[in-house]
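User: Assemble these into one structure.

Assistant: Restating your components, then the assembled model:
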Amino acid sequence: MKPIKYFFKRLHADRVSYLMIAPFLISFFVFTVIPVVSAIGLSFTDFNMLQTPNFVGFDNYKTLFLNDDIFMTAVKNTLIFAVITGPLSYIFCFIFAWFINELPGKLRAFMTLLFYAPSISGGAVSIWKFILSGDRYGVLNGFLLKLGVIDSPIQWLTDPEYMMAACIVVQLWLSLGMSFLSFMAGFKTVDETLYEAGAIDGIHNRFQEVWYLTLPQMKPQLLFGAVMQIASSFSVGAIPSELNGFPSTDYATHTIMNHISDYGGTRMELGYACAISTVLLSVMLLTNKVINKVLVDE
Amino acid sequence: MKRIHVSKRLNRSRGGDTLIFLMLALVGVFMALPLWYAIVSAFKPPEEIFIYPPRFYVTDPTGKNFTQLFQLVTDLVVPFSRYLFNSVFVSIASTALCVIIGALAAYPFAKKNFMGKNVLWKLIMLTLLFSGGVTSLPSYIIKAKLGLLDTYWVLILPSIASTTQMFLMRQFMMQIPDTLLEAARIDGAGEIRTFMHIVMPNVKPAWMTVMVLAFTGIWNAGSTGVIFEESLKLLPTALGQISAGGIARTGVTAAASLLLMIPPILAFVITQSKMLQTMAHSGIKD
């Protein structure tokens, strides 16, 4: 009886805390935890929203890895996106936050806005459609033609040779978001006296300053930035489908997220779509573990 | 070239400052050009949009694109004002709930001890990873099963559980000195009073930041996939339907994206210093 009594006693003692977190926690469980857990469960069924799901074992996963060529394309594309845009945008966030922090006050605030604005201008992706438009009125084509770099307009958004590059550029353009702000703030909080002490100890230029003094101080922000970067680079999907259409030519920019909405939204094969989601979530958790290890150990 | 004056600081050279400034200017132009092009195109008459080579300025500005935009939207059965109302209502309601409920939850996680705290916090931290929307399909199934599709609830309720926002507020609340809370307790203030009169005023930058971030996210998100009833759709979705009309609607699309852009950018400009203050505590420590 003792442990149970103790349990209720603690429950009662902390009741205010529980009441305060309750609304958040309920919503968190209903819209995040339960969906993820049930998606893992449903991935072993032929769930289609209308009929009671039947257990099918590993069939979905077998089909996914052995018979679904388009899934393999999607995995390849997502990995290319994640491997290129994830680290690049992380590095850009850091470098530009660093550079902007070196500017004097007013200019610094202006540049922060300039670099951050694309990530919050939701409607701006549609502007890229006109910039990268395939005829000679497209901005990029117009300039390249005028300069004589190309003879005929390039189909940036429908020619598989350029589609991926176009998406990566746009993705990078709007990726200076949460991590960028976090790094900006991180730079501002480093104690000035640290730099003075460093100068006495033989730090001679700003590169040494960042490498030996600032970076170690900013580890918490760097960790947060990494999580945000993984979150956004693996969930790429909206930008390719907005720019290249859905499905894209030859599936050249078809990502895992696009594959999920294809099976989950269009074909209503939800069991299968849940299997794809489960694979994606596992890959993200794994990547997070690895990156955390690297950042924490160094 | 314009010279910038930087006060003499440690380990800084004129050459290095110039180089950094040049690089920032160059990348800054790349960042700004698309936005600038959207602004300019929004005011271009049709004959200026279809000019070769394309221009980054407008000679004969017009408001026609905006009037045409309102007409086009009005032709879509549902009046423009309805989409605007939906977007404003949903954004404000979600933002308010997200801030209030997030702050309520952040406080115990920052300053209290209760059974299960560590396990729950680990779980919440893990789901920060999913903030990009990878759980959209699983949560769609739940929303459908709960009968939330095609109601305002499907847009408002999920945003309450924004782990990123709650996380930011919790990190900021960690900075409140325990002695301050202790003093309030000795003065006889209950938990709720302490929260309202001590905690919330002390973390104003945090909840202002979260307000802006939440508002921006919800404002830009649109209602594709969860709302099929035309009169409940949000502005980005409705405007997306217009720009799907193709290249002939360049001017109108530019006008639409300009209108969508203004509220989030304005919100950031007003709160920039508060936001940077909050983000300083965004780090993950362990």
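Chain A touches chain B through 111 residues (CB under 8 Å).
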